[in-house]
């Protein structure tokens, strides 16, 4: 069996980011940049007032004091959006408001709270410094500066920055189109009364939500019974939808009723592997159907979700050109004693919290059976146990992956 690292390398091998497209900023949140984005303008484009007050020459107030106030003539007004057109000469000031350009000749702004205005004059009782309360031209950024990088997933803050840089749209990778097929005679949809030997289908709801959270457009191709012709038909429907990625759940092993591999092979899939040395999620399949990556997830609901976190998420990120592919592990403290591990990497469902010292504590849920969804619902993360890891005492260091919310 492949290790998790080797399996992930094979899943990602040869997968290139999808082509770029230009989208309006209003539609760009969480999209991944296909190219660097440089500022089209300088911000601020000129020196601006940071306060409401008076624009003046700092040299005019050099000797100002309570005993000897300095009085200047107010020659005009500069609201934001309506700059003062003249020049401030010695002995003059302009009433100015936050965001307005500082008039030519002025080199400081004195806040209105310390000024004493009387008609067309204003008095000051203290000196000020050059550039006081002035936002210099280009203080934020200058035209040509690259402020957003290719491979970056755009946040809300990035959208504001792109807009300030004067970009109405940005180049992003196209969203991956994911086709999802569930297989199994035993599966019935939620809201259905299961018959003998049947169970309610749950995998697809978590997988589709996870894929959408990672930027994919999901086409649910439904539940397919354990019949070769119907499985092939579902695969052909996925191809007709021009999916960029095909995900199946269940039926990827080699049992008498596990027909997914056989159906995919009949449609031309090149199989890479179908077993990984991990728990849960051992019966994981990867291949290529033409240029389309295929990921066959286990039918077991917990195995399916854990495998999706470890393999589907990086695959979707690669298709979108993201720089950060794998879900990163972080250090934690084990919340209880753990037995020695066997030959498979173990991803134990765990509750996360903090101890009195503020350290992250991961406490595995008691029942780790991979068919149990209630413990998965309680978990916040996966505590990672390497193959053949020795017994671990409570309080010892470990690594965890946070589960997506």
Describe the protein.
This protein has 405 residues and is an alpha/beta fold. The chain has 4 domains: 4-18 and 174-319, Molybdenum Cofactor Biosythetic Enzyme, Chain A, CATH 3.40.980.10; 21-43 and 153-173, no CATH class; 48-135, Molybdopterin biosynthesis moeA protein, domain 3 (Beta Complex); 329-402, Beta-clip (Beta Barrel), CATH 2.40.340.10. It is 18% helix and 30% strand. It contains 7 helices and 26 strands. The protein has helices at 4-12, 156-164, 203-213, 228-240, 260-266, 301-319, 373-378, and strands at residues 20-24, 37-38, 48-49, 53-56, 70-78, 92-96, 108-111, 116-118, 121-124, 134-135, 146-148, 169-173, 177-183, 187-188, 199-200, 217-224, 245-249, 269-273, 278-279, 285-289, 292-297, 329-334, 345-354, 360-364, 381-385, 397-402. A 6-stranded mixed β-sheet has the order 7-4-6-5-9-8, with no helix packed on it. The protein has a 6-stranded mixed β-sheet with strand order 16-13-17-21-20-18, sandwiched between helices. Strands 22-24-23-25-26 form a 5-stranded mixed barrel. β20 and β21 form a beta hairpin. α3 (203-213) packs parallel to α6 (301-319). The longest helix has 19 residues, at 301-319. The two termini are 31 Å apart. 39% of the residues are buried.
């Amino acid at each position: 069996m492949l290790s998790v690292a080797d399996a992930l390398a094979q899943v990602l091998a040869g997968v290139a980011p999808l082509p770029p497209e230009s989208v309006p900023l209003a539609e760009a949140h969480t999209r991944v940049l296909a190219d660097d984005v440089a500022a089209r303008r300088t911000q601020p484009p000129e020196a601006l007032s940071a306060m409401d007050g008076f624009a003046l020459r700092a040299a005019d107030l050099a000797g100002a004091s309570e005993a000897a106030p300095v009085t200047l003539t107010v020659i005009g007004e500069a609201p934001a959006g309506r700059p003062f057109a003249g020049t401030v000469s010695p002995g003059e000031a302009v009433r100015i408001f936050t965001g307005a350009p500082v008039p030519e000749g002025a080199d400081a702004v004195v806040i209105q709270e310390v000024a004493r205005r009387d008609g067309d004059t204003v008095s000051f009782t203290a000196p000020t410094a050059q550039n006081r309360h002035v936002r210099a031209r280009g203080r934020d950024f200058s035209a040509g500066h690259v402020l957003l990088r290719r491979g970056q997933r755009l946040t809300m803050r990035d959208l504001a920055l792109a807009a300030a840089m004067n970009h109405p749209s940005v180049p992003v990778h196209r969203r991956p189109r994911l086709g999802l097929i569930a297989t199994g005679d035993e599966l019935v949809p939620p809201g259905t009364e299961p018959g003998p030997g049947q169970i309610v289908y749950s995998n697809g709801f978590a997988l589709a939500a996870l894929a959408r959270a990672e930027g994919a457009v999901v086409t649910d191709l439904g539940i397919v019974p354990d019949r070769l012709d119907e499985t092939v038909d579902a695969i052909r429907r996925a191809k007709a939808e021009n999916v960029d990625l095909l995900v199946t759940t269940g039926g990827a092993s080699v049992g008498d009723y596990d027909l997914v591999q056989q159906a995919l092979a009949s449609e031309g899939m090149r199989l890479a592997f179908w077993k990984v040395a991990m728990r849960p999620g051992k019966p994981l399949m990867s291949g290529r159907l033409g240029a389309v990556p295929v990921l066959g997830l286990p039918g077991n609901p917990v195995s399916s979700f854990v495998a999706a976190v470890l393999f589907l998420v990086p695959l979707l990120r690669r298709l979108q050109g993201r720089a950060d592919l794998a879900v990163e592990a972080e250090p934690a403290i084990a919340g209880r004693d753990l037995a020695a591990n066997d030959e498979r990497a173990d991803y134990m469902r765990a509750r996360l919290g903090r101890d009195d010292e503020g350290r992250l504590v991961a406490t595995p849920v008691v029942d780790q059976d991979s068919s149990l969804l209630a413990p998965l619902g309680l978990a916040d993360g996966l505590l990672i146990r390497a193959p053949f890891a020795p017994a671990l005492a409570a309080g010892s260091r470990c690594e965890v992956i946070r589960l997506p919310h």
